[in-house]
Amino acid sequence: MSTPRTVPPNFITEIIDDDLRRGKISRVVTRFPPEPNGYLHIGHAKAICIDFGIAHDYQGCCHLRFDDTNPVKEETEYVESIMADIRWLGFDWGEHLYYASDYFEQLYQCALGLIKTAKAYVCDLSPDELREYRGTLTEPGRDSPYRNRSVAENLELFARMRAGEFAAGSSTLRAKIDMASPNIVMRDPVLYRILHAEHHRTGNAWHIYPMYDFAHPLSDAIEGITHSLCSLEYEIHRPLYDWLVENVPLPSRPYQYEFARLNLDYTVLSKRKLIELVKEGHVAGWDDPRLPTLAGLRRRGVRPEAIREFCARIGVAKTNSRVDLALFEHVVRDDLNWEAPRVMAVLDPLKVVLTNYPEGQLLRLDAPYWPHDVPKQGGRPVPLTRELYIERDDFMEHPPQGYKRLAPGREVRLRHAYVIRCDEVIKDQAGRVIELRCTVDLDTLGQNPERKISGTIHWVSARYAIPAEFRLYDRLFTVPDPDAGFLNYLNPNSLVVKHGYVEPSVRDDQPGTRYQFERQGYFCRDPQVGVPVFNLIVALRDSWVKLVEGEREAPRRPASAVAASTERKDKLSSLDPEQRGRAERLIAAYGLSADDAAALATEPALATFFAEAVAHHANAQGIANWLLNELRRELKERPLTELALTPAGLAELVQLIDQGVISTRIAKEVFVELVIGGGSPRALVEARGLTQVADREALEPVVARLLAAHPDKVASYRAGKAGLMGFFVGQVMRETQGRANPQLVQALLSQQLN
Asked: Which domains does the chain have, with CATH numbers?
């Protein structure tokens, strides 16, 4: 394909490529099938990007189909919000908008066909009896006493169910498959249930509604879907999907493929839990910026481009894993860096009076919107007056050593303006600082004095600044995985409201306008009417570069690394200032060696790959070793994008080593296959039986046999040739084809030799 892929190559695209090559299909048709019973969240965004993105990449089409088969929970509000969210993400279904309710009559006829071929029956077991008869994961189910009703009786009863003659829950239509199936889904699943509820599209025309597992595959077949893509929890439902499309005559035969769902730290993506958060008032509605809903992310100020990029980076895998929220924040921050103009805002104001600046004088300073490393033009006038506001945190009456902001007798530069010195501190009766009296050095506009100035701070004019409310959003939960008992882990500080001032250049900007408030973070103007409200999108501090205190434990640097600081400076001295700064941050954040940090700092593509991999597994040095020693060797002159290995794949490989599942030798074999074909290392290890042998009883006879085969070397070792231990370990590893745990092998050898 000539145009870049929307979805990076993965196991699904390999299947599609093969289907097209063999002529199994001529055109790719996918679908996104939401149930209209809630708002979409970022997990749905991943599915949307895959469904619509793959259709786009193969010049096919993606249908939007609402699986509206449960009228009790569905509302038109949800339908409208889902369509708005998909369009906001940048995708469109064109003329291919469908509803499962469009097919209610056709689905009913399909059910009649199953009854007529004795593959479905009406069952009068109650819901509790259904559960009892179904059996357990370890015990087979029992046949319903109604399983052998005649075709004629089933047809009559099903017609009466449709006519509304029976009470809700009194009868169901079930498929007749296998009550002893090891897959509990296949134990005569329910296809239809009775619901006397008004449907948002069909009104009261129906008293029976198809189950999702019945309507979904048959709707796919009706629409000619070629690849029905869904998340991994539906893997257990695939046999029922196949059974239905094979036993109901329909115009096409779709196939279901499952990918790993998105699990994001410090939030919940369960629709039930999100509804509970909203209904019980823990958040302020579906568009609360703390929620992972697309409506919430949009109100917070996250751009759809960032969400699409995030979904592309996490990739399409077969194994579920958790994604560090820091990766999402990193992508959002990287996106906004190029899109958000820089302005100044003071969130916790402290008044400053410039005593030698003429009262009533106004100086309009030209301030650029963009830093030098963003190739964009534009600026705005910033008014400077005698009275200003600075951030309260930018002043300290008794500063510690190394403090680089304002203090009594010290100087700082006002951003885009003069150098000022604090001469006097004014306090209220409680001893709180309420005002600073400062002197301006009028010779420092646009030029530096010969003396050293400790730092630069932001500010706004007290006369012209606009009063504003600032909503500082943090993670909704206090633990990475709040799934069980999630309400117990709500973060009481997930929203902090401050009242301050913003420069007047933003006065007429529309809701949704994004900014970087210098030295504060990225903010978005909220649609709330009245005093301007700005929502924090993401802080400036990037935990990929500098770990947030108290949230993640940074790897401890060994004492030797501290002692070698001079050597580290020598290793970094050949880098340019930007690369050196990047390397220093890598060392501080991840505890990398100077050599590895320098190597990553000079190769941005590898550095990005490294950061994304560490999001999946925290062994930063281990991942760096594989990147710089193995991956770089495989790259040669090729770009990273040509390799099938993903950051998540490398992280999983290192995790398997750390967990003792595979040895380093086996890992290298797996690594080569991942570079060529991609996929999940764990799945590859399990499929090929490469799991490391860490069973003492299994390895003891191997060690004993080896020592018996080399009596001369055993004697030499016991005579003092300790270097032969490497020979013995190597022999055991060779005999076990690299699968033995080398630490256990060495321990067993030491035990038997000594």
From this structure: 11-101+214-259 (3.40.50.620), 103-212 (3.90.800.10), 271-337+469-502+508-539 (1.10.1160.10), 342-465 (2.40.240.10), 559-681 (no CATH), 696-753 (1.10.10.410)
